[in-house]
Amino acid sequence: MSTLSWVRGVNGTLGWVAPKLVASKMRLAFMTPREHLPRDWELPLLARSERITLRFGLSALRWGQGPAVLLMHGWEGRPTQFASLIDALVGAGYSVVALDGPAHGRSPGHEANVMLFARAMLEAAAELPPLRAVIGHSMGGASAMLAVQLGLRTETLVSIAAPARILGVLRGFARYVRLPPKARSVFIRQVEQDVGMRAAAMDVAHYQLDMPGLIVHAEDDNFVPVKESELIHDAWFDSRLLRLKEGGHQRVLADPRVIEGVLTLLAGRSLQARQSA
User: Fold this and answer.
1) Are residues 154 and 148 in contact, defined by beta-carbon separation less than 8 angstroms?
2) Rounded to an integer, what distance in angstroms lies between the CA atom of residue 62 and that of residue 209?
3) C-alpha span between 132 and 18 (Å, rounded)
4) How far is C-alpha 150 from the chain's CA centre?
5) Which of 63, 153, 155, 140 is nearest to 102 (CA)?
6) Closest by CA position to 191, among listed 163, 207, 164, 172
7) Which residue from 32, 16, 120, 114 is spatially nearest to 74, judged by alpha carbons?
8) What is the DSSP string of 257-273?
9) Separation between Cα atoms, residue 154 and residue 2, nearest integer Å
10) Among 147, 168, 277, which residue's Cα sits nearest to residue 223?
């Protein structure tokens, strides 16, 4: 029997009689990331990076010189997963800072969530020059949009393979691990207590996104449904939706059309700034 099958079996039985206990264990599993080492293709970029430490021990990698671009990876992700995009940005004259999210890489912590990621971006931005762009992948994209609601300032914003609704993410995880209804409700309440905000409030339908943006999603993404990108696009007036047939959840980061879209967004914003000066 696989570990997942065993967990589902326990949850499906014990979850009816001890919902708080089961929910607490699943909350811990949901918020505790595993470490995944860089792949071979990421190592050359890693070797060219500068490791920097920001406030509260937050760790990041930096490349290049020029206007600042801030990157945030997804759950159990790494800065160097953006390798192709980082190379293109540096080549186009930008300075790139890619964070290790809380409890990821060399950043401190044992647990992480969308709010901790968002606050990490705010802390990083406080020590960086004005941001030309913020780019987030998966949970990093959801965190970037949340961070803007908390006061993060950036000229442009890019969301790649991100969910539109955190409540949907929580419900999806609860179904995946087969939590019964009572345990599922307790699990969501426990996560909300840790995050400090109701899950239903972390929904782009309630957000104010008033900067130019790019939303990217692949139709064959098996982790975050492509329909989430349409919800983000509907809520974000000044955004372009780049929907790709293929790219999955991770490979999309290296797609030439995504890189072109990001550079076009940044170049257009730069031209607009010069014209209004």
Assistant:
1) yes
2) 27
3) 50
4) 15
5) 140
6) 172
7) 114
8) HHHHHHHHHHHHHHHHH
9) 45
10) 168
**CA-CA distance, 248 to 18, in Å (whole number)?**
37
Per the listing, tokens 């004259």 go with 93
Q: Which residue has the tokens 């009572």?
A: 182
52 three-state secondary structure: strand
Amino acid letter for position 195: V
- 214: how many CB neighbours lie within 10 A of its CB? 22
Q: Which residues pair with 217 in a beta bridge?
A: 243
User: Would you say the pTM of this structure is higher than 0.90?
Assistant: yes
CB 144 within 8 A of CB 121: yes
Give the Cα separation of 225 and 220 in Å (integer).
Answer: 8
Burial of 35 (0-12, 13-18, 19+ CB in 10 A): exposed
Enter the tokens of residue 212.
């130019």
Q: Which two tokens stand for residue 9?
A: 């079996």
- Eight-class DSSP state of 65: S
Question: 185-219: per-residue pLDDT in tens?
Answer: 999 999 999 999 999 999 999 999 999 999 999 99
Average predicted confidence (pLDDT) for the chain: 94
SS3 207: coil
Q: How many residues does the chain have?
A: 277
Residues 269, 218: contact at Cβ < 8 Å?
A: no
- Are 223 and 249 within 8 A, CB to CB? yes
